[in-house]
Amino acid sequence: MHRAPTIIRSVLSDQVKEHLLSAILTGEYPPGARIVETRVARDLGVSQGPVREALRDLEALGVIESTRYQGARVRQPSKQELFDAYDVRAVLESYGARLAVARLSDADLLGLQTYHRQMMDAARLGDREEQVRMDVAFHAKIMEISGNVVLERIWEFMQPVSRTQITFVLPGNDPQKIVALHDPIVAALQARDPAAVEEAIREHFRSTAARFEAAFAGVGSPSSPHPALAVAAGRPAPEHAPDGEHRPASRPRRSSRQAAGSGAA
Fold it and tell me: 225 by DSSP, 3-state: which?
């Protein structure tokens, strides 16, 4: 069975999603701005299919909302929504890590240590994109090792890549401290201690949530819209059409690996 077109579409839609999410996180798409599928497709040089898939994923993530006949607009999740996401990931990943310990091979451990080391290298070099990629790969590997395909599928539905990107744009974010949050997880895995690794994962997300709360202390009630998706609020607002439509300006940047794997846009 020929699967290449599906793979290409999936890779391309992920690139479009990352491009749009980055624009939302930096304030290029402010809350309420329209994201027009046909215009995005034209400006990025892609068909509407990948854009439609990207918008669907962003809606599931909670950063846009679609209304029939009106299209997609940027929305701001409440603080509570973002905290709830940390809680759910903590439950899923701590359980997955406990399962993974019993199945952990020396090769698995070496792979996790490699991801951890590459995270440190990226943080030292200030390469946020690579650090996000290695961070997510580390957590994904643990879920894969757990051997529970249903758990892994639910975890993927949480869109860990996008949520990790949101974490990395918090004001005052320190890449080195984010790496350090993974040290106890690696140590517990090395000791093959299921209770310790479960607690290390939970503490990882408690610490992340605490940094999030500190970054946006005093912004409003837990149910109020949270400016986590407008961290560049000090920037001049981009120009928009009278109807609030945003005019995207650039194509998604593609690594050589992505370009080779996804074909022409």
Answer: strand
